[in-house]
Amino acid sequence: MQGEQAVWDNLMTWLSTTTSKPAVQECGIALLAVIADRGLAPNLQLRSPQLWSLPVLRQGPLAAASAHLVSAAFSQGAAASDSEKALQQSLLKRVLTDAAAEVSPQLLVHTAAVLISAAVSDHSQYTTSPADWIQDWDDDFQQQLDDLARGEEWMARNAQQAKDTYQKAAAARRVAATSPEAVSPESAGSRQKLTGQLLQQQLQLLTVDSQEADSPLLTKLLRMCLVTVGLMPALRAAAAPGVDSAEDLVTEALVLALRRVSSLILTLSETGKALQRADAALLDQLVAGMRRHPDTHAHSDTLNTALLACMQPLEKIFKDADSVALSSLVSTVQIPAGPSPATQASQAKTAAVSMFDDDLDVGAPLAAASGANRPTSAGPASASLATSCRLSCLNLITSLGMLDPNSAITTLLQLIHHSGSSHPKPPPELVHRALRCLCDLVATAEGCHHIRQATAALIGEPDGLLAHHRFQRDEVLMVLQLLSQLAKTFLSQHGSSSTAGPWPQAVQLDLDAMMNVLEEVMRIIAAAESKDDKPTSWQIRMQLATSILDLVLIDTEGFGDELLSVCLEKVTKLLSDDMYFARRHGACLATVLYRKWTRPQSVFDDLKKELQLRSLASGDCPAEHMETGVLMLGETAAACGALEREALFLLCGHAAHHPPHIGLVGAALDMLAARLHYPSRSSLMPVHAQTLIFDWCSHDLSLQHFLTIQELVAVDERGAREQRALITSYMHHLLPVLLLDQREEQLQEVATCLGTDVKVLLQKCLHSILGSALPYKETGDAEERALANTVTAGGLLLKHLTGKLALLDLLFYKEERNKLFHSKAVSVISTILLSASDEPTPARPFFPMKTVLAAINHAPNQKDAKMNQDVLWAKASYSPLPSCRLPCLLGCPHNREFWFQAAQGAADSLVLRGDAIGTLLVSCHQQLQKTRHPRHARQALGPLKALLALLGDAVTVPSTFRYASTVLLQQLNSRERWADCCQLLQSILDRMLKQQSSLEVVGAHLQTMLASIMASLHSNLRAANSTRPAPQGSTRGTDQAGDAASEAALVKLVLRLTVQAPSGLHVYLRDVEPLLPLPALEPACRLHRQLRKGLSLAEELQHFAGRARSMTSAMRRRSLAALLAALPARQHQLFQQGPSGQLPAFLPKVEEATWLSGESQDSAVAAFAGELLALAGPLDPSAIAFKPACAPHTYTRHASGSEQQAAVQGSSSSSASSSLTTMLVAALQLMADYLVDPDVLVIRSAQFTLRNLLGTDMGRQAFDQLDPVTQGYLQVYRREDDSSYRPSGKDAADPKWSLQSNPGLWSLQGQSYDAWVRNLAYAMLLQAQEPTLAMCQHMIVRKAQLAELMLPHILADLAHHQTQGTLMASISSQLSAGLLSPSAPVHVKAIQLILTCLDHLRNLHLKAVLGMDQEQRRKSTSGAGGSSTQGRSATRSGRGGHGDGSKSAVAWSKQYWLDVDYLLVAAAALKCNAYFTALLYVEHWIEEQNGRLHLGDGSPTDKASP
Length: 1506
Fold this sequence. Notes:
Elements: H1 2-17, H2 22-37, H3 49-52, H4 55-58, H5 64-73, H6 82-96, H7 105-117, H8 139-148, H9 151-178, H10 185-207, H11 214-237, H12 246-270, H13 277-292, H14 300-307, H15 311-319, H16 321-332, H17 341-354, H18 384-401, H19 405-421, H20 428-442, H21 451-459, H22 473-494, H23 497-500, H24 505-531, H25 538-554, H26 561-573, H27 580-589, H28 591-596, H29 600-608, H30 623-639, H31 641-657, H32 662-675, H33 681-698, H34 703-708, H35 710-713, H36 717-721, H37 723-740, H38 744-754, H39 758-764, H40 766-773, H41 782-793, H42 795-802, H43 810-821, H44 825-833, E1 836-837, E2 847-848, H45 849-858, H46 865-873, H47 914-929, H48 934-951, H49 958-970, H50 978-993, H51 999-1026, H52 1038-1057, H53 1066-1069, H54 1082-1091, H55 1097-1107, H56 1113-1130, E3 1135-1136, E4 1145-1146, H57 1148-1158, H58 1163-1176, H59 1201-1211, H60 1216-1234, H61 1240-1253, H62 1257-1264, H63 1268-1274, H64 1313-1325, H65 1331-1334, H66 1337-1340, H67 1344-1361, H68 1366-1380, H69 1388-1411, H70 1414-1422, H71 1424-1437, H72 1462-1471, H73 1475-1490, H74 1500-1503
Helix pairs in contact: 1-2, 2-5, 5-7, 6-7, 6-10, 7-10, 7-11, 9-32, 10-11, 10-12, 11-12, 11-13, 12-14, 15-18, 15-19, 16-17, 16-18, 18-19, 18-20, 19-20, 20-21, 20-22, 21-24, 22-24, 22-25, 25-26, 25-27, 27-30, 30-31, 30-32, 31-32, 31-33, 33-37, 37-38, 37-40, 40-44, 41-42, 44-47, 45-48, 47-48, ...
């Protein structure tokens, strides 16, 4: 961030002074635009006069880079000030006038839409990104380059394409989540009107007043029409009811412009000319814009009619193309002056006709150049001009016909028939182009019912392309391509037979017609193959397989068994084709079969026979065939979740057996990771680590083979470099498999690689070994149970842990065994849970839910189920067996204690106690957090489902309910997970809502739950609105039904929390924010409105201000809209009546809510706060107003003597320890939130910190001051016995964390503010002496908010223990140089934090001084040495520097402890607009310089001593 900020600042300086050429300066603007668009520098003033007064932006027309910068500057929210609104309006003028001829229409649409409404709503169809202008690249050419690539390069390109697609989709979702749902008429109406006027003016200039030539004029008209059509939705979006929208201003001008476009196109066609490529592309984009949302254009029919005026004349020109070509030639031939005009015309015609004689047969008779009179000596090239004219007409009819596909299809069918019946026959390229144009129109939603006519044009008698039944490669290839296009059209409109059900008769006839085409083509190919071994080219073989699979996706029953077998053989043989590109294409195509067949494993087994890989065959394989085999496995893994595990194992196995292909396999894994939305293969491997190791050992592959592919299977960068790190990351998966198979040699090899002993290794992984083995004991397979018994009751585990094979030592049995196993009970259960699968018969090492639950419930190995439950859940005591009965180590039937029994006499052993359940939930959450793809998440949901089933009613514990529901709510960001997550949430809520005592817990979490559900529904609604509705008459698709079912699950959940909830929950429902106004949610919305009737506007505002930051942007907009709607009629509810004679004043809670809203980063919320302040009116000019939310709770203001004395006396009674306790209360509240953080590592750190912090007296005191709801969340971590934890402090000696020698701790250079404050607080905490503070080390390095809270108290602890010495001097000097120095970069938040720390030190000093009696105070001023000694001794006697030790602050040479220049601090305070604080430090500086503080007029009298 800091680097990008520096680039921005340097570019601004250079652009303001440079005299370089405008093109060079545009490069600088382009860099600024990229930085602003991607948000790389947070402290940008994108709307400041300094930026827009740059010469390159102020002079001349706006170029593309400047338009991009405009888009980035105004896409973050509406203009707030009048100057910004004026800038916005002036830029809008320049964009639509000066830049119209220079910038691409797509970028113009995007930029103008942003300037109109300050956001982009649905204009993404015109451009994928505002920065697309930077790479002006031909997509077709790029695709050709990609197709020519091979091996690693080809897969790398595919991986990059997948990443780009995912990133663009994610960016679109982020834009959709933050963009407004509607444009405010007040804020955008004037700009809409201005836009309409400008567009109208530009269109009139080009339509009526232009004198330009036809071709340049057509280009400009197409560009401006495209921009106008693109801006139509934005012009109409915010129109006020009953008022003409800006769209109406431009409609008439747009109609005239479109008619002029149609006229110019016709003029060019009549002269035999074709549109230039750029103009043709603009025409296609214009038609696409007019087609995209016809329902949003009030005059769409009028606009379409205007542009389609040239359709019938184009048909006529097509038929008379020979005459048009002749006329064109006549007009270009130069004839010498003759006796009469008639003679000149005859000579011109004769010369033109002679030009058709391409074979140069001099002296041959010449005839007319048109129709059947053309000489036979003139070959196909004789009609080249006429053919070119006809091709141009076909292209125009197709492009324009997209606006009226049915009429265009009828026209094309007539033209095709006309061409087929003419003599001589038209050239093949004309026929082929006509058929392609026909299929392009049939592929539209409106033209899909013409499939039979299209197939008749392909094979029908007598004019069909293949009606001659002869094999011609070009014709066969084109028919197959068009058949594939028609099949895709059919599937998109009607779905497949498995999802759509029985089709209407007309639809079935269309499918039969396509099957007839396929059968006819295969008959022709079979006849050719009977005469020639390989008549088909590899392109035909590829396209045949593609067409077959496109039809297979629709319906397999229509093939028949014999035809289906032949077709599948064609697809399968493509994998072993001689041609590389055919094999590669087959590898991509074969994955279609997995989606169609219910048993993809059988299909994959058949396809594997065609692959040549070292992991499948032991013989030599050609390198090229192995390369395409690797690609096939990568495509298989990406396409089918059921085969992903096997395909990934085969890839790794191939690389292990053939190391030269490690790079190739790595590229395949990278492609797989990108397709499944993982940033890299190292982030994908943790998902497969357990199964990969299991399969590796099951196939007898050695550890050395695994180390060979180290870079492929590493889960992090270190694992890719170091073998020890790799084995460590897989150790907990590897050892259980080795123990199951009793592989002692490999076990020893693992220990050798790690440099440790086998016994130590087994002890470290004991929970993984036991947790992996116990589920095998609950299966019905005798062999599996025997394997489990070998692990748990003897074998290698017994041998290495005891050194004996049969006999145990009693001491070991009583102490060591309990020490090892009782402490690992929760970890064992966690491992068992992670083997749970939702499938009925999962492959090992996974087990069904029933088996996993049985393994956990039977794990204590007691006499009966009740005793097992007592061990797991209840406090119980069991006596150890007599020493004469020495059982085996683990699973012996005589061992009734198993490994949960603690030492002899233990009576309070709870295995599944509250914090243990939290640990299990963290394990399940971590498993989910590893996943990025929905199919992986579904597998990862298995452990959580099993845990919830295990918990039963125990899920109603507040902390458990909150965490479990939060994890499930976080999964609602993916639509594929809605059904499963909603089902689990429903079951949890059913348990919670049936208990009256749990309603308060649900109520406290109600806003969070409804907000998450509303966000998911809102995203689904946006996705539905952005998809064009299906045309009338089309049948249902596959996705719509799935979306409806998923949405129904969310709606059901909302109803369960509202109308179906107990009445006791209504008091909490009243305070939640407005729900989405969906028809399905109308009962819930009605109930919510009824409950809020008694809620005052002040209470609504208070709730909104307190929750605005945590709301989603969509919910924040809905809540804000509701408040704005209620403000005019209910504003009196915000005031309270003042004393007689005084005006009403804001209620205190309204005042506080207003300040909180004003600090929001959301410009709309900040503007709302401004309206509230305007309502409040002017404040009392004699009063100083402070923000209530920021007002200190202790004395901080410099005041008069009596006022100061009263304030100090009131605060001096509280010691420094109470201040620390108050801070701990706030810290506990934060950590309660961190317990449901999205990051699992944060949750683990929070749990660890709470277990230790709530085991101290001070932590328990802070806990008692929390509200009941927060106490419920933290109760499971509270301990009555004192915590013995002490941080190791191993980082204290690291120079990185040295406060004295590392100046980077005091500078934000190269790091964000959050990272800086975390690092600084952690470095200080390493030096702190207070144990309670030191216990927070794990949390403070993860959360900046906690670091901000604790930093003043950590610094105070250092001050109490370091009253003299080098630490204070070092901190003072580095603080002055890094943050307070005038040359240091200004960071407001960092300076504010330092000012808070200094203020806290001053308060401690003030309390200490005023807490002494008069005699001690007099001694402290007369003899600094004695006071210092006394203060230091008091500090040492107090615990950690707090309590009585606070008196040591008297000994500070400065009341802020730190030796800093007060003027530097005052200057820094001014940078934060903290003017009173700056004044305070100026007064301190005067007092320090003069020994006293005296303010006067500077006269000698004032300077005299009093």
